[in-house]
Fold this protein.
Amino acid sequence: MAVFQLNQIPLLSRSALDRADHLRIDAQALKEGWATARLLRVGRRGAVRYESGALVWDSALELAAEPSPEAVFLGVDDGVHLWAVADAALTGTLRDLRQLADAPIDDFTAGVLSAALALINWHASAAFHGIDGTPTVPAKGGWSRVAEDGREDFPRTDPAVICLIHDGGDRVLLGRQQSWPETMFSLLAGFVEAGESLERCVEREMREEVGLDVRDIEYLGSQPWPFPRSLMLGFCAQADPGQPLVFSDGEIAEAHWFTRDEVRTALAAGGWRARPEEGAATPATGARLLLPGSISIARTIVESWVAAGR
């Protein structure tokens, strides 16, 4: 049994988008649907137009007369095909996914943006085949890329673990990255290495980042993280607070054990806020300890741990 369980589904895991994956290989259906399709334009750093509490969609015909290889097919909403395209010149009332998370956005919008950003970010770095550099072109509504000889590449997802370390009682370890302001802390995380299980990754990353030996590792849940195309896999694990902290890999500037009451107070203060022009987080005024906003599975995990101690 896990020490606690997530008390809600992480925000970006609540997708209500019908991906209609059977249509991706049906070129004729995609062509027929294009005439009435809606198009989401995605600007720099994943910004989209968002007005009156909703995404702003264009007619797909404004981009081209038929499905464009530049666009990616997201799915279907009430029989209408949905596509997205990168648009570096996008203007208007722009918001990125981090800013929209505290709106709060609905499950449909979360699903649309998670898929659109991950796909567009993948295409931006996948124009050439990974083996020999052969040029590739989009296929299947943007869900693959094909070389001239028929070899096919599929969207890449990078798995990463994120772990809440607790002491088996009322304390949790939170760390601050080198680039973060002094009050900003979160859970520890890291990418899964080749040939590595998730549990061994948790052990390795926690040891590398703060020098702790963790045990009783338990899986909690997952969330897509399209920055640029990751999947966050949430865990909790226990460690000895008496073991010295060692910051060996240079990623963590400091880490401290916080009590449940301290974390509860931080949660009540809100989450990180993003600067629109940079997409970076800034602290709420006057808070001693700040935790991630609702977009992150880190906050869901922390909230669940706090709630379990009531």
User: Anything to note?
Assistant: Residues 274-281 have pLDDT under 50 and may be disordered. The two ends are 18 Å apart (CA to CA). The domain at 157-308 is CATH 3.90.79.10 (Nucleoside Triphosphate Pyrophosphohydrolase). The chain has two domains: 12-153, 157-308.
